[in-house]
Amino acid sequence: MAAPPPNPINKPRNPNKHSLKDLKTLGHQLLSSRTHINNLPLLLTYISPNFPPQHVLESLLSLHSFFSPLLPDLPSSSRSPTHNKDNDEPDADVIYKTWLRSKFDEFVKSLVDVAVSPKAEDALKEVVLDTLMEFVKTGNGGRFNSAIYHRFLVNIVQSTESLDFVLELLSSKYFKYIDIRYFTYINIEKFAKNLEVKDISDGKTESGDKVGESDSRKSLELSIYKIHYIISNIPPLEDPKQNSDYELWGGSGFSVKKGESKGPSQHLKTEDKDLKSEKHDNDVLSAGNYAKKMKLKFTKAWISFLRLPLPIDVYKEVLSNLHQAVIPHLSNPIMLCDFLTRSYDIGGVVSVMALSSLFILMTKHGLEYPNFYEKLYVLLLPSIFMAKHRAKFFQLLDSCLKSPLLPAYLAAAFAKKLSRLALVVPPSGALVIIALIHNLLRRHPSINCLVHQEDSNDTTDSNSEAERGDNEDEFGASTNIAARKAGIDHFDNEESNPLKSHALGSSLWEIDSLRHHYCPPVSRFVQSLENDLTVRAKTTEVNVEDFSSGSYATIFGEEIRRRVKQVPVAFYKAIPTSLFSESDFSGWTFKEEEGERKGKKSENGVSNSSGDKDGCCTKRQRGEDRSNINEIRARVLLLRAFPSPPLPSSSSIAIVGWLLLHITRHLMFLAPVTPFTTPRTLATNLTLQVWETCATGANLCPCFLLLGFLNSVVLERVGFSIAYTIAADAAGVNQSSKGTILSTFYYGYACSQVPGGWAAQKFGGRKVLLLSFLLWSSTCFLIPLDPNRVVLLVVARLLVGVAQGFIFPSIHTVLAQWVPPHERSRSVSLTTSGMYLGAAMGMLVLPSLVKFKGPQSVFLAEAILGLSWSVLWLRFASDPPRSEHPKATAAGFGESLLPLKASQKAKMENGGTAVRTARIPWKRIFVSLPIWAIVVNNFTFHYALYVLMNWLPTYFEQGLQLSLQEMGSSKMMPYFNMFIFSNIGGVVADHLITKRILSVTRTRKLLNTVGFLVASLALIALPIFRTSGGAVFCSSVALGFLALGRAGFAVNHMDIAPRYAGIVMGVSNTAGTLAGIIGVDLTGKILEAATTTYSDLSSPESWRSVFVIPGLLCIFSTFVFLLFSTGERIFD
How crowded is the C-beta side of 426, counted as CA atoms within 13 Å? Predict the structure, then answer.
């Protein structure tokens, strides 16, 4: 016999006197022995939002541990104590368990109060929610305890607080379980029905208490908001064919004990009628049965919810998501027809939002709605072209008018209504209208008479007769339209009934008037419409989706991105600060601006005297006159420089100047120039504009400065090769040692490639370039050229290599932020062609300089050139002016290409410019096959280039027995050929991409393949030719087509990773640098072995391996690039 239950009324009078340590002691006592059962009511008093969270949490943990093992043995809430058979007294054990059940119910109620209380902290609410859901899982003998879950949801919905945290926590942690979704739908259906009944009763009861009625209405709306949040955040059930393994929170699925539905408050008397018909509670349902039951409860919950008086924002949100989130999962979507037809009849934005779902019901579920097109016709108002959901509306409108069974009068009415709207809507709306009318005319040939009415009277007579014959009974006698005067539009724009609008008696004169629209895209589109109607067989329907989301911003962006085919006549000396200048309104004074100026001056205590104003105007006028006089003086001086009539040299100067300025305009964001008639004036004005542009550092693009940078860099490399070779030969250094010294540079160059890309990404390309130039220029100036001082030369070449390793990643970082995608090929080609120009100049000038001034003079000249160019870079370049230049901003590049995420934002002030940094995806970079394709080709290119650059002078002197001084300009032809072919490749690539002749991927592969395959043939054939002309020709073809191939692989990293262009360039250029190390050193060893075998290097066999190896590498790289490269962006 169990012990008698303790006195349940033994509660403390002052519970606040217990400390946290006391509560722990009380909890341990309760769990350790039944004799301390009186601690249970005491701990229950602390489950309240009025107590500190630590006290509540400690009591909660103790009570949870106490009740969890007892729940299977506790009676249901409605069960009364039973009596013993022998005595009339009830059984003590039953009384004890009943008392425990009441305390458990009190515990659950307290937990729910804490969960919905605004006083409780979020962390405590999370623990309370987990405890409640644990009781839901285990509190009914292993079955889902829907009574506790129902009580919890009721308190959430009826609470006057928002409870966003609790709802978000519930949806994120527990709505993934299918049984919780199931019982949530059941409870939502009950809540919605109760709220509907309450709303009806409140509407019938007329009360004079306006305040109470307002509070009741707010409470109802808050409950609806919560229900909508819950029902819209329940994820849809997966298809049982795709996923049959559903995750359950309770162990027995949807089954419920028979007595569970009867609680103390009778919440669950009719919990689920479908479940009562089941013969066995523990049967496991199949996936198909789960899906069927879930779809049924889903449908009931949503239909009940949609009967509620939804607030307007909830109404709109439901309509916007109904066709995607609700209709596909309903058991019978036709049940939504009443709700959708009522919404469609409201008009305005609500009708537009209801159109998607209603269209689905009509096309896929057989809904008949006779007045659909009449309501749709009424929706065509100017305001619809500014609505938020206009894009979806225009796409559905186009789909609704696609049916071939559409009557001619209806199609004509829509065409005329839309064409009339084209006169008053924004340009983006006019583009959509033209597309819709284009499709209507193609789909319905019977309304082609609207394009041009030959005889208005005859046409309107026939149309009027047809209308009268078909609709005389319903609409009465029609007006005799033929009696109207010719030249008057018979279309009634105010008529809401398409049948009575008389559209077939009119014409689309509004579309013809759009030929003279102020917006160029609109007028161009009208002309294309005429062409499409003329050659109907060769054209197709217009995709309305391409125009449905248009706005002023998209039209402006398209115009900015359009390639300028002709030179506009406007030229600005400075960036315009407004749409119209003050000179356009000479003599006008605007009162608002004048009042603002007076107010500002009076606030600052400045006198607004007429004398000051006149003084300012006089100063400004004098400044303008002075600038005009200087401009005229400069023009006169330049005109004197070109004699009249113009000589052929003047014409060639003009042509070269024209080409230069157009390249500059595309690469430097220059304002377009004015065309002139004669070569003399053309050359004069072009020179003036280049002069004026270079005078403003804000507009100076670093492309030509970067070209000079690379010119100096490669000049240094060629210069060291020539100077050191001559000095080493004089000192008797062998070929292997010369190869080691020449390759030392590339060790430092390889180590600094990736750090260079990171530094340019973090600190800006301008600073990194400047520091690297100063470092290698100073090193060249300070280090003497002495072949016997090997250690000093090695250290110097390592420093120069490290300094120059930062240059290429920095350059590509700047170009990726400056240059738009359709101009990248030519800008990169122009910039990098400085390398080849420097090599050509080095081969032409430096041998003579060494001959007359000695090898050390080469280093002195290179140091002076590097320092001079650093000064120019510091003076004119900027780091890059992302948002300062209007064309850069409008084109959508520069600032947008900087790698920045919301969680990775890190800004540093750098001279007023925000420098952005972000985490670099190193792993994705190193495992990406397109990047490896770039790396392989970069390796091959630099292997061939560095071998020829370092050993071609030796081949000319020792292999062909030629003197570099006697070869004259022919020895510079290979590098000058690279300069030409590099720029040709850039222009060809941009032309193919811009004109959409080939995609970006195919363009890169084509140029890379042609360049490398031709270069491989020339390299293999190079040792065969034993004359200077043949050797120069083969080396020129090889290097020229290698430069052509750079328009393929060398620009590709900007295509696939524009945000990380410097980083990817650093990675690929590291491979190119390793090629320099391997190629130059390996070539030296090959030649050393050939010297041993053939006693000298004059035989072709000595050089065959030197040139065949890069030739075979070119063939291998071509196949790698064809297989793995791409022109699409793979790094966002």
Answer: 16
